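Q&A log
Question type: sequence-to-structure
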Amino acid sequence: MINEIKTWILIAVAGAMATILGYIIKVVTAQVIHRLDEIVTELKQLTHTTTIQNEQIKGLQEQDAIIRRRLYKQSMRIRALEFRSVNNTDHQ
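Response status: OK
Response body:
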């Protein structure tokens, strides 16, 4: 009789422990899923921001290339004018 009571008590305690463990696992899993959702949201925002910044960088690089070409053309014109000026003064 006492052994049966001990067995029932052990079964009840094991059941209670399993219930508590299941609840803990459920809570931890929910917290992990919530945090993962937050991380995914942050990653989406960062990806969006990175895409916008990459487009801005590309636009600035294109503007830089245009400005460099213009400066190069202007410097070539100035050199040509200087060369003509030097040659004209030499001939006079």
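Response note: Helices lie at 2-91.
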